[in-house]
Write a structure and sequence with these properties.
Elements (H helix, E strand, L loop, with lengths): L2 H6 L2 H5 L4 H13 L4 H8 L3 H14 L2 E5 L6 E4 L2 H15 L20
Antiparallel strand pairs: 1-2
Helix pairs in contact: 3-5, 4-5
Length: about 120
């Protein structure tokens, strides 16, 4: 989803994106995860050519989490409800411009004191 999609969406709208193959892949992550996409494809008999793109889509929507490793060959798991809603609200806040960027540490020398 694009930032404007998050800005205009509700959580129910987000859930409507989880249908068909995405729903099947999400159910497989919930049942067989955490694991790699290759392991999941073997465990649930879903083609890796279908599983990987659906996993990427679910990752972008916040329904799957990359736990560790590299994006290729990493270990994924299904997100808990609270994690999904938290991710959605974070993305919605970003789309609405309501976040404060952290300050950069410039590591400048401390200024001299003036008396």
């Amino acid at each position: 989803m694009k930032p404007i999609d998050y800005r205009n969406a509700t959580f129910a709208d987000l859930q409507r994106h989880i249908t068909g193959d995405r729903m099947r892949v999400l159910a497989a992550w919930k049942k067989h995860g955490p694991c790699t996409t290759e392991d999941l494809a073997e465990r649930c008999s879903i083609s890796i050519l279908s599983l990987r793109p659906r996993t990427t889509e679910l990752l972008q929507l916040g329904f799957v989490i990359l736990m560790g490793g590299k994006k290729r060959g990493g270990v994924y798991r299904a997100a808990e409800y609270q994690e999904v809603t938290s991710y959605f609200h974070e993305q919605q806040s970003l789309a609405n411009g309501r976040t404060v960027q952290p300050e950069l540490a410039l590591n400048l020398p401390k200024p001299a004191r003036y008396y």
